[in-house]
Write the structure tokens for this entry.
Amino acid sequence: MRKLIFVTGGVCSSLGKGIAASSIGALMEARGFTVQMVKIDPYLNVDAGTMSPYQHGEVYVTDDGAETDLDLGNYGRFTTAKLRRANSITTGQIYKAVIEKERAGEYLGRTVQVVPHITNEIKQRILAVANDPEVDITIVEIGGTVGDIESVPFLEACRQLIHEYGKQNAISIHVTLVPSVSGGEIKTKPTQHAVKELQELGIQPDAVILRSAKPLSDDLRRKISLFTNIEEEGVISGYDAPTIYEVPLLFFHQKLDTFLLRKMNVESRHAELSQWESVVQAVIKPNRKVKIAVVGKYMDLHDSYKSIWEALTHGGIAHHTGLEIEKIDSSRLEDPKADLAAIFKDIHGILVPGGFGERGIEGMIRAAQYAREHNIPYFGICLGMQIMVIEYSRSVLGWRDAHSTEFNKSTTHPVVCLLEEQTKITNYGGTMRLGAYDAITVAGSNIRASYNVEQIRERHRHRYEVNNDLRADIEAHKLFVSATTPNGELVEACEWPAHIWSVGVQFHPEFKSRPTSPHPLFKDFIGAALRHAEK
Ligand code: GLN
């Protein structure tokens, strides 16, 4: 079976199209179908690797080392779709490929045009994912807003696919806004116009998801159905839910999934949604509460650490525990007058996430030292693990200027540095270690206790490594290297001796956590925070 569902957005951006697409994916999986997800980003960047987290939010990494838009993170949290490089398409990739083909003479002297050459390239890439014989339904989300100049070729490709494969094999869902003006009156006009704009491009949406603060009345839905040529059953009220993880249930209760399956002429199957129901219960009615401090550098934009916030929530879900998260800009801790005891009062766990560049590093080191000396659970992710090694070398080994050569090139103790071998094991050029690699956990460690297996596989995105020349000294002073690469050469995790719970990992476990299967390290970090809170 090969079915395509296109998800577009109208009226304005940031309506939660990604959550809508992911939730539809979750519902289809709940009904036993195999789902794939594709994100189209109409920008000219080839991928998100070079984009600033301040501007664009987190860079999400796939197993095969693609640096993608954070919407793929949502797909990974809501579905079990196998996300790879091919699941993220940008205008930059499309034009690059077409121009390279043109230079190689593949178009045999013809004029190369947006239609058909660009649109064919787009269609080919969508179908490359959708044609996998194991996949039943492929959901394609088109970034941006219909009406933007950039998305026109993508919408044209969708129109062609719907035309070529027929309305039973390719359907369209439009996500729009239904605002209320002062006095509370609800306005359908923006949605009417947004649907019209899509129709002008030759796409008649089969369903529309209306984003609004409150549930919309049936009268209003009927009115929109009448104006937009969309069956009433396909007019869905996508009102604000207390948690994004409720959105699959919200759609389910309005029978969006059975409607879409009917449109695609697919016989419906039993829906198994109990796991989503327990997730929502755990989030909205937690039994306990802990307070976690996240000490990082991109604190102003929530999206820069998107997967970290979500994975922490999942860790809470595993214990039916609500989280109060204190976001601390690490540069705040650098002020000699900063009162760490006051800042970390009532904090039950400290997490230092990933990051690049020098700003705020000393503040992270102070946070790690505070956690170590006050026996507070500590979770260091990527940069957060390197910080652990730097702090330990300075405080315990007495190497006062110990540092990473990323931040101090002339340190006499480069405990974290660039390695020769690293360039050899990088699959995708450049100097970054990107994508999934195996690691071996050491028996008796926290990390082994979490995973409960020796060999693990996690995603990486970093350049620097713990320096092997200094590792023996550091280990001799009891910093526990609790995971390494299978050949033992690179440090993948470390832990402090005699501490309530500490794990630093060179990889990014947050990318693989799901609300329905919280990552074991996040689960155990929150577990340790609960133990600390009870003391
Ligand atoms: N800047 C560090 C490195 O490149 C850590 C990267 C990260 O935290 N993702 O190794």
In short: The first strand starts at residue 3 and ends at 9. Residues 425-429 have pLDDT under 50 and may be disordered.
